[in-house]
Amino acid sequence: MRLLNSYVLSAVSGAVWGFLTMIVIGVTLTLITGELAIPQVGAAALAAALGALFTHLWEGKTASIGQKYAPAAIILLTLLAATFGAPFALPLSVEPLWQLIALVSFVAVTFWANRQTLDGTPKGSLTRYEKEVIFLRVAKGFGFVVFTVMVALPFYVMVMTSLKSQQQLLGNPLDLSIDLSGGLSGMFRSYIELFTQFNFGTYLTVSAIVSVATVILTLLFSVPGAYAVSRLNFPGRSWMSRSVLLIYMVPAIVLVIPLYAVFSQLGLRNSLTGLLIVYPATTIPVALYMLQGYFKGLPAELEEAGLMDGLSRLGVILKITLPLSLPALASVSLYVFMIAWNEFLFAFMFLDDPDIFTLSRGVVSLNSSEVPRQHLMAGAVIATVPVLCIFLWFERFLVQGLTAGSVKG
Amino acid sequence: MSAIADQAGKTVSTAGESVSQPPKGAGPMQKREARLAYTMLAPTFLIILAIVLGPLVANFWISFKPVELGDLRAPKVLINERVKGKPQLAGDPATLEYRVRNSSQKNSIADAGFTDILPPGFTAQKLPDACSLTGTNLTCNIGTLEGKAREKLVIAGTVSNEYLALKKPEKASKPAVFGKADSVLTNSTFTLDNFRRVFDSDEFWSVLRVTFYYTIFGTVGALVLGLFAAQLLNTSFKGRGILRGLFLFPYVSPVIAVAFTWVVLLDPFSGTLNALLTKMGVFAEPVNFFGQRAVDLHLFGTSFEFPLALSTVIAFEAWRYFPLSFLFILARMQSVSTDIYEAAEMDGATPLQQFWYISLPQLMGILSVLFLLRFIWTFNKFDDIFLLTGGNAGTRTLTVDVYEQGFALSNLGAGAAVAVVVFVVLVTFATLFIRFSTKEEGL
Questions:
Q1: Which of B106, B197, B216, B275 has its CA 20 to 30 A from that of A182?
Q2: Would the CB atoms of A254 and B41 count as touching at under 8 Å?
Q3: Which residues, 6 or more positions from B50, have their beta carbon under 8 angstroms from its beta carbon?
Q4: Are A257 and B253 a contacting pair at CB < 8 A?
Q5: Residue of B246, B255, B281 with shortest CB distance to A151
Q6: DSSP characters for A168-219?
């Protein structure tokens, strides 16, 4: 363990940073320019390790401005020397501007990361605490990068693929740059075709109608139910509040065959009415559960006061309980909207008629070999954007509702 | 207080009771309250009964029925009416012909027949045995019409001028058919064939194994990723809100969008990821992540088969659902008071020790509840695998098998039988879950 003194650790942490930063920047450069930039990880690790070592050596109150920023120059020079002047294995004539930006950001990111990691580390041998601090700083940075890439990359690919043409996609799958040569209409060709030829305007409308109607129906059913479970005393109350969540665990796939059979006989299968019966039925239990959790948290005295003052139960609910639980109503509505908008199984099983397809069903119909994949991705974007916008707008509500309704601590 | 009690006791005793007791059972107020509660719960109860519990029972029923997708259309009597012979003058002979057919190939129709009004100006002279005539109202009783059966009923007669004046006189009235078709869904034929078929197939046990791998690793993956993500965002810094929003994207987006994006991203021929990995020299050949059942891996001198498609599907599952566990874990972490960490810091506990001895024990409750919830939900999951691989390449789980049997192979009964298996396994988990949740008090 003696070996792991501050100098070794700083070099190792620097090497990790160099390695990681180089991969991310190299891949990003490739995807933005479409030119294959092979990350020179070895050289990058070496450069950042040297940078980290000198950052650590020259850290301290006595350090001059030159000593403070010299490690950046060391990183730059080492990288250039170790890669023979081609840090991304590309000739300098190719995309020089992007290469420059990539190089500068590599130096800046590794330099900054080294400073953050080694901030306050004493020189020489280290205690376990100090070692762990360095380890955790590196691990956290690593985690941030990995999680962000992992989440963002598919969405980036989704959007960028939808803006390409078939030839571009087959020609160079690496090229996910924005191509402005065809103008705006060239870029949004897939979207225009989806709306003009593939009926996506209708799908969007149908999805909106179905989702909003589901929200309204769910609230109409679950508000009185939740109120009864949380406020009124009746035999079977505790059993009720628990079994409601069990309903939510019944797999949809078990219900699909009987519902398919019965709805076929009743003529409800290929209709929005059928969907509007099934969707609320699947969302009411969870809505009821979330709402009763919130109602229980409201002070009962307020309602009792209302009753004393001569309000009926209905009046109490409408004038006292509901206004107080607006945040919960908002989060339940959002959650239910999300479920209905994203629902796939029943829409897929029930709907045959393209005039009443929801977006989910419509996008699935694009998944065939005759439809080019940029159309598929454009459909995915159209299905995602509304729900993401609503989510980002009301994120606070959703997060609170999801966690507060069901977790008591 | 005691005075009131005494008074009450006195009133009771004057009413003829010897012992004073508190009232037993529910008073009128309580009864009214309970009635109100039931009224408010009734709509919810009814819709759940109709759409969730009813189908659940119906599924058991169907699983014992030899029912196929085509049987959902009840057999119908199809009829075609036409005139043979070309009458030119009044009094010419003509024959009216009814062709009757059973729409179903298999199932018979009992008491089949039809009624019709004879074309105006047509006089019947010879009726088949099955038919009778009252005025111009014709009624024909064919009796039982077997599957695939066809019948031809010919009525000979003569025509008048009225008939000749019309263009297509036989179209003047449409024959109305009747008959009793026995629906497979409601009759009393039962069979164990569906279950025999499910359990006898070699695939079933591998499907079951795949289901458990998928469920366990998908759940654990989502939980571990969620735990790490929550650790990352448990400190406050600039841009934390943005990152938290971003981390929730996979969970909020529609499953079709993200599933197809993964399919496009990992495509062996035109997928970005494969292009990156092969061009940068990580892989020699493009890898068909969703299409290849297994790859041979050589590690430390041993080689084993790595289930590639299944692992990719599990990775997707963990990716898509880590935000949920992340949210819950983060909420729990933020409710832990900071004093305890400050105390630990004073005592010289290192960061990892603080995590291991303080954070993790406090998170055990929420982690176990999340594990059970996610376990059940992952087990129930159908859309993800169906959209990613269609259940091919060794990724078929029980839920996908329900679809495969019921709809792809059109055998609703067999599909329902698999669904019964799904449900039985699930009830076992749910029982565990109830036991657990009462202990943990988490939910």
A1: B275
A2: no
A3: A277, A281
A4: no
A5: B246
A6: HHHH-TT------TTHHHHHTHHHHHHHHHS-HHHHHHHHHHHHHHHHHHHH
B150 has which bridge partners?
Answer: B101
Architecture of domain B77-181: Sandwich (2.60)
Residues of chain A neighbouring B327 (CB-CB closer than 8 A): 399, 402-403
Q: CA A55, CA A114: separation in Å to the nearest integer?
A: 7
Single-letter code of the amino acid located at B399: T
Which sequence spans correspond to the domains of chain B?
77-181, 194-440
Residue A151 token pair: 């989440």
Buried b (16+ CB within 10 A) or exposed e, B26-63: eeeeeeebbebbeebbebbbebbeebbeebbebbbbbb
Residue of B29, B253, B368 best to disrupt the A interface, most CBs of A under 10 A? B253
Whether B37 sits inside 8 A of A147 (CB atoms) is no
Reading the block at residue A229, the tokens are 């479970």
Interval B33-47: pLDDT, tens: 888 889 999 998 899
The full length of chain B comes to: 443
Segment 154-173 of chain A within 8 Å of chain B by CB: 154-155, 157-158, 161, 169-170, 173
Q: Which domains does chain A have, with CATH numbers?
A: 6-171 (no CATH), 198-406 (1.10.3720.10)
Q: Tell me: the pLDDT tens digits for B58-86?
A: 999 999 988 888 777 777 788 888 887 77
- The answer to whether residue A38 neighbours chain B at the CB level (below 8 Å) is yes
Query: Do B77-181 and B194-440 share a fold?
Result: no
ipTM of the complex as predicted: 0.90
Helix (H, G, I), strand (E, B) or coil at B101: strand
Residue B16 binned pLDDT confidence (cut-offs 50, 70, 90): very low
Contacts with B, A 358-377, CB within 8 Å? 359-360, 363-364, 367, 373, 376-377
- For B271-368, strand residue ranges (E) read 295-299, 302-306
Measured in angstroms, the CA of A64 and the nearest CA of chain B are apart by 29
The residue of B35, B40, B278, B346 whose CB has the most chain A CBs within 10 angstroms, and thus the best one to mutate to test that interface, is: B40
Whether residue A24 contacts residue A105, with contact meaning beta carbons closer than 8 Å, is answered with no
Phi, psi of A97 (to 5 degrees): -65, -50
